Amino acid sequence: MRSPMHGSEFSQNASRLAADDTNPYEPELGSLPNRSVDAEDIQELKTGTTTIGLTTNDGVVMVTDQRASLGNMVSSKTAQKVEQVHPSAALTISGSVSAAQSLIRTLKVERNLYDSRRGEEMSMTALSTLTSNLLRSGGFLITVPVLGGVDEEGGHIYSYDALGGVTEETYSVSGSGSQFALGVLEQDYHEDLSQDEAREVAIRALKSAVERDTASGNGMWLAEIDAEGVEISNYEDYDEAL
């Protein structure tokens, strides 16, 4: 015998709700998206380089090569891999070019906002923390910078990983030629270097890297930072800067 409610909208809704044993009060668990990454896409994002930063008695010396690569091809022979981001600080870049350029622009904007709002220059500690937070945000992946700057305490070099981890070092390197540059730095660096001595050590380390790393070469960018500011220049011949 059919009930008076048979075939009604209420009975149809009740039937749908009773179709399984799912507890309506249990949380629904999502699933991870099925994301596959093509190895060729990753290769296109990689850019080899060698960047070096050293602290000195009077400030900081930073050098980079000028070659940008796209896979096995040299995409640029004049790439600038160190830029001023503060009146007394500069940042070297390695990794994804677009992400690094965006990081530099963002640092400059945030530093200007900080100065305008507070009426004082951002400290090296604040600048290093800002850089770390930006990398940790995930918007600048595959970027491994070295930050160098000078304040009333002297020269500072900050080393980062791609996820925003930061450590302050007396010297640091990044890029595909790092291991070759480190061999020279481990042997020749000491904390009492003058600016001229640090320039020589940094250039020797860079020359060692470009001799063995095929993704580094085509000249050099040199940044010298002291209490008076940041001076950036480039050289086709490494020995011209000595």
TrEMBL record:
Gene3D superfamilies: Glutamine Phosphoribosylpyrophosphate, subunit 1, domain 1. Transmembrane segments: none annotated. This is Proteasome subunit beta. It is found in: Cytoplasm. Belongs to the peptidase T1B family. It comes from the Archaea. One of its GO terms (cellular component) is cytoplasm. Component of the proteasome core, a large protease complex with broad specificity involved in protein degradation. The gene is psmB. It catalyses: Cleavage of peptide bonds with very broad specificity.
